[in-house]
């Protein structure tokens, strides 16, 4: 929720500043972004690598800090990977063109040999001459077959390499749109998808619903049991969401412990029913601390679901779902509220 977003960002910001100070790191924007991401736990692999470095030497030096940023956060990292793959694809295409050029020359030479043989057979005056011509045709045919077999093999290898490079591009594209912790869409992908869904709903008069869900008392849980267990909870919720959404839905990690689901083509009642199924699925799972086997009980979540109306923008649709989520929290948590009408959007205090 908006109030919780503000509180979380302040806490994460304060932690980031404390990490900067304890590591004597200049408060440049990219250094702050690195430690803010670490504090928020948005990138588990980054946290793992930093924790290993801190365990080994107690702090990060400026070179390590820059390396972590370049490897995990720099916008240039994906551009560089795309550039490398694109360059490799271009090289493979040039290989194929070269192979086809060789093939064209080979076939052209074979055609000349056949025409020469045909002319020679017409003018042949003895069976010996005819036999020599036929033997040359056989030899030329064997040579072409051999070259074509090599060409087919080389084209097959090039095709395999191009397909592998295509898969690499798809992996880069997926990474750029995905929250690494939960496997759901990230905030950027959600924002772009909601813009598109609202445009389609407006143009085609199609049903569109938006659900926002928030884990109840997550900050208390995180503070009590630690970030690693908190990450386990986020993964659990992400798994529950993926198990219940339909193929045409888009589920995203919207904020720290907040999730959003875009549901195109669903009525409000169907969308609410699905979000409530996710809520019940989460509470059914008992949490166990992996390191000790200790039972941590169960977590609950609250949700707000609303449906697009003609006058909506993406902002008003989100505001309405957010207000319904707040009402679900205020009225006892562990429930899902829905409504198509515009509620009172006065600022409300944050509820965990």
Keywords, please?
5-stranded mixed beta sheet; 7 strands; 352 residues; single chain; diguanylate cyclase; 3 domains; Diguanylate_Cyclase; alpha+beta; Alpha-Beta Plaits; diguanylate cyclase activity; GGDEF_dom; 67% helix; Nucleotide_cyclase; two-stranded antiparallel sheet
Written account of the structure:
- With 352 residues, the chain is α+β, with helices and mostly antiparallel strands.
- It has three domains: 2-73, no CATH class; 77-177; 187-338, Reverse transcriptase/Diguanylate cyclase domain (Alpha-Beta Plaits, 2-Layer Sandwich), CATH 3.30.70.270.
- The protein contains eleven helices and seven strands.
- Strands 2-3-1-6-7 form a five-stranded mixed beta sheet, sandwiched between helices. A two-stranded antiparallel ribbon has the order 4-5.
- A hairpin with a 6-residue loop joins β4 and β5 (295-297).
Strand order, sheet with most strands: 2-3-1-6-7
Give the tally of structural domains: 3
Rg (CA only) = 31 Å
- Helix/strand order, N-terminal first: HHHHHHHEHHEEHEEEHE
What is the residue-mean pLDDT, rounded to a whole number? 79
By CATH, the superfamily of the largest domain comes out as Reverse transcriptase/Diguanylate cyclase domain
Model regions low in confidence, pLDDT < 50 over at least 5 residues: 343-347
CATH architecture of the largest domain: 2-Layer Sandwich
N- to C-terminal separation?
9 Å
The CATH first-level class of the largest domain comes to Alpha Beta
CATH fold label of the largest domain: Alpha-Beta Plaits
General shape: elongated
Beta-strand percent range = 5-15%
Count of β-strands: 7
H/I helix tally: 11
- How helix-rich are the residues, as a percent range? 55-70%
Quickly give the structural class: alpha+beta
- Largest β sheet strand count, sense and barrel closure: 5 strands, mixed
GO cellular component, one term: plasma membrane
Protein name: diguanylate cyclase
Catalytic activity: 2 GTP = 3',3'-c-di-GMP + 2 diphosphate
InterPro entries: Diguanylate_Cyclase, GGDEF_dom, Nucleotide_cyclase, Rev_trsase/Diguanyl_cyclase
